Amino acid sequence: MTGSLRKLAVSLFTAALSLSALTSPALADDPAAPSAPAAPATSAAPAAPSAPAAPGSTESDNYASLAKAAEALEAGQYGAAIDLLESLDDKGFVHPSASYDRGLAYLTRIHASAERPGDLGRAAAAFEETLRLRPGDADAEKLLDQVRAEVTRRRSRKGGDTVDARPTLDRAIALVMSARAWSLVCVVAACLLAIGIFLRRGFEPPAKPAAAEKDPPPEPEKVRTGGPAHPVHVTGTVMIVVSAIALLFLIPCAWHARTLHTDTRPGVVVVPEAHLLDEEGRASGRDAVPEAAMLEVGERRGATLHVRWGSTEGWLPAASVRVLP
């Protein structure tokens, strides 16, 4: 292996390990939320919620409020349940049952013909939050689909766009896996690169013996260094080439995924329509973002947030977006 190729291999190996070291602490999983019972079975109408038992005395007041909210919701007192659950959210209390019950409370108000502007978006945000805290919750997924279907049905009457927007190619690739998964793949590729270097250097073909002085000098185009390559030497060469090419693709993807994870948060539109603004606070003229749409939330500047919806970017009032944990 030439010196330049060896330097490239070492550089890729170091970059992959450095990226993994930077990614791991930044992407440490959030502390697990206290265990909660599975959400109740639901139908087209909101189902009665269930309240978890308090795991300890330090948050007993919060869990007592959650239990009261569940009781109020079961009794059809959706206004009291919403007040209690929103108060818990303002305190920073995060729990999948609280998020799920909050979504049910907003749906109950909608079914009671007492809907307020943004209730569908708030319900969608609550169920999205539930799925982030309790992945695989079938009831939350079902209700979220119902909410988005209702938003799409209402918008179709006005000729509006659907709620979902396709992400750009760079984000679609980066979000195929989590940032931690990308970094782990980089480490695996870097280890394969190191193994390939070891195999290639450890099984280099033996050098040919020097020709005797009486022998005529070989023709320049026939000069060869060493005999037939060892199969392990060939394997190492292939591993070096493949892993180096893989790292050239994986390292930028892992870095981009890490940047998205650390610099952006998911959010949901909680107003009937959100009109994008430019950096000066003026209407951008782009299409309005529909209620319940998922956004990529970035920088906050005063009372506005920089958001991205598919390939569309702009600024929205912070009150029109619910940022998810």
Description:
- By secondary structure, the chain is α+β, with helices and mostly antiparallel strands.
- It contains nine helices and seven strands.
- It has helices spanning 3-26, 60-74, 78-90, 96-111, 119-133, 138-157, 169-174, 179-202, 231-263, and strands at residues 265-269, 273-274, 289-290, 294-301, 304-309, 312-317, 321-323.
- It has a five-stranded antiparallel sheet with strand order 6-5-4-1-7. It has a two-stranded antiparallel sheet with strand order 2-3.
- Helix 1 runs antiparallel to helix 8 (179-202), helix 1 (3-26) runs parallel beside helix 9 (231-263) and helix 2 runs antiparallel to helix 3.
- The longest helix has 33 residues, at 231-263.
- 32% of the residues are buried.
- Residues 25-48 have low confidence and may be disordered.
